[in-house]
Amino acid sequence: MLVHTPVRTTDSIQQIPLNLRFWLVTVFFTSWVRASNVGGPCHTTQYSVKGMYLRGHTFKNVRVGPHDSCYFKCTEEVTCQSYNFVIGQNICELNNRTKEARPEDFLPDETRYYMRRLTNRGIFRNLICSSREWQEKGTELSSQLTPNPFVPTIPPRGGHPPHSNLVRGKLTSPTSNPAGDGAYVPLGSIPELPAESCSEIIASEGGAIKYKKYWIHSHGKSGSIEAYCEDGWQKVNGEDPVCFGAKNNKYGSIIITKSGRLRTMKLVHKNGSLRCNSETGPSFWGCTYAPYGKKLSTIITDATKTVVLPPVKDLKGFRASQSHDCGTKKHFYSLNGTSHNSTVLAFQTLSNPLSVSRDEELQIWYGQDLKDCSESGNSGSACVDVYAWYE
Ligand SMILES: *[C@@H]1O[C@H](CO)[C@@H](O)[C@H](O)[C@H]1NC(C)=O
Ligand SMILES: *[C@@H]1O[C@H](CO)[C@@H](O)[C@H](O)[C@H]1NC(C)=O
Ligand SMILES: *[C@@H]1O[C@H](CO)[C@@H](O)[C@H](O)[C@H]1NC(C)=O
Ligand SMILES: *[C@@H]1O[C@H](CO)[C@@H](O)[C@H](O)[C@H]1NC(C)=O
């Protein structure tokens, strides 16, 4: 269990000018001030954690004098997201990740404490809230050390992708911190601080993220790309959607932009539609000919036409007794909540994530075209945006 204790160490604030000292006091006090009313405006998500540290993400060690604070050393570095303070040695280990982004690396160590860099919003809120509570609660604060109840609950990195419709956020360009004014920079928002994946960004930033461009590693630590993230989803195609047809091997080509392990993908319909019969109506994802019912027939394969999504075990063919040109060839599937006119086709999460490499091709196929059956009467094409969810 985490024990949150006041930070009273050689990270001293004794001889600092008054305004700075006030600032420091408020910053550190919020680490152990309990907001007086749960759900009120004084939620504090910023705090230090004694006896814990973040392992393996230190990009710089700085020794501080008795009048220095690690906090300010951290704010001098644009990529600093948090720090470990080594008690007794006066060493600040500046980290380029937070414990929210890497919960698996947040470990006990009695000789250290951990503190996250405040967001701008956090600074403002904490100043107001902590000065108020300082007045209200005065000296009784130090005895009230409980785990912070206001830490946002964050899905584990690579957690279950929400199979929800896209809610388009406003497009904004990446923020940068050229002024070096000490403002906190979110993970992935500048080229110097690429994130591992969109899901790491949500974990680090503590919640949903809007449709926006971020810097993401594209192949291990080498190279990074700018990609749209929305929640944990990373958009794979560029500005142009990917189109696929219903016959004559008109698959849509997806070029993977990031190496990694794919948990699943989703397709977002942009325009067009497909028909499997001149007499039946159009569909975004399948065939509206009655025997198919609400079954879908949009399939993702690798470059050798091996089915990747949905998992091949979910693919069905017709019963042997049912007469159809595709016979028992497995080329359609059910997906709960998704039908012929759904805007979003979000596949189920793979139980074994799929390893993909940057520049590898995946293909989007119409089932009958993939299996080369019953396709002569087919027509139309559909265009989609492609999103991937990495571990
Ligand atoms: C983050 O720090 C690690 C060392 O812990 C370093 O290998 C890595 O390159 C740093 N990443 C960035 C983006 O600064
Ligand atoms: C989708 O829209 C684009 C741009 O408006 C157009 O070029 C393309 O032909 C359309 N595709 C289909 C299948 O409707
Ligand atoms: C579809 O959803 C229903 C209700 O949520 C559930 O009972 C059923 O098992 C689901 N089917 C599949 C194939 O996931
Ligand atoms: C989708 O199709 C159903 C019938 O299958 C229809 O009731 C519904 O209005 C359609 N929705 C849209 C947005 O076209």
From TrEMBL:
Residue intervals passing through the bilayer: none
InterPro entries registered for this protein in UniProt: Pan_app
Region (Disordered): 154-178
Highest rank taxon of the organism: Eukaryota
Keyword Ubl conjugation in record: no
Signal peptide limits: 1-35
Any coiled-coil regions, as ranges: none
Alphabetical list of SUPFAM superfamilies matching this protein: Hairpin loop containing domain-like
Keywords: Signal
Start and end residues of each Apple domain: 42-119
Record's keyword annotation contains 4Fe-4S: no
The protein's name: Apple domain-containing protein
